[in-house]
Write a structure and sequence with these properties.
six-stranded mixed sheet; 2 helices; mainly beta; 11 strands; Immunoglobulin-like; Ig_I-set; binds 2-acetamido-2-deoxy-beta-D-glucopyranose
């Protein structure tokens, strides 16, 4: 019964979640939330498109939010959070410069990623 149930569940989970679920308890629990991809420092030319990546793994649903300089980022026309969690800036401007972090949370808690610095270079 258990293995049938696991297979049923695993069809509906991502591979990573499935591995987490099917591992013996204590090895890797569902409650653990961690980043599989964290944003890196980026230097963009003025007007260039920027994507900052962030992916977390843990018991779903996991929601991702972004912060710039410690303040939660509001999405606007040119700044969006993509469905895969990455932050998308369609045209970088000096105002976009700063220190970015993503915050992942699920019902067990929250984790904050490393800080990624975005620098926008070029003529204004
Ligand atoms: C998320 O999607 C965007 C746009 O398709 C892509 O550029 C980015 O690399 C993706 N992020 C990850 C972590 O795969």
């Amino acid at each position: 019964f258990f293995s049938r149930w696991s297979v049923f569940l695993c069809e509906r989970l991502t591979l990573l979640q499935c591995v987490a679920f099917c591992s013996p308890p204590g090895v890797l629990g569902f409650s653990e939330l961690s980043f599989s991809v964290e944003p890196t420092d980026v230097t963009a030319s003025l007007g260039e498109r920027v994507v900052l990546d962030c992916q977390a793994q843990g018991e779903s649903p996991v929601s991702l939010r972004w912060r710039r300089d410690g303040v939660q980022l509001q999405e606007s026309g040119g700044v969006r959070v993509l469905s895969n969690g990455s932050l998308f800036i369609s045209s970088s401007a000096p105002a976009d410069q700063g220190f970015y972090q993503c915050l992942a949370h699920n019902r067990h808690g929250a984790v904050l990623s490393r800080t990624s610095q975005l620098t926008v270079s070029g003529e204004i």
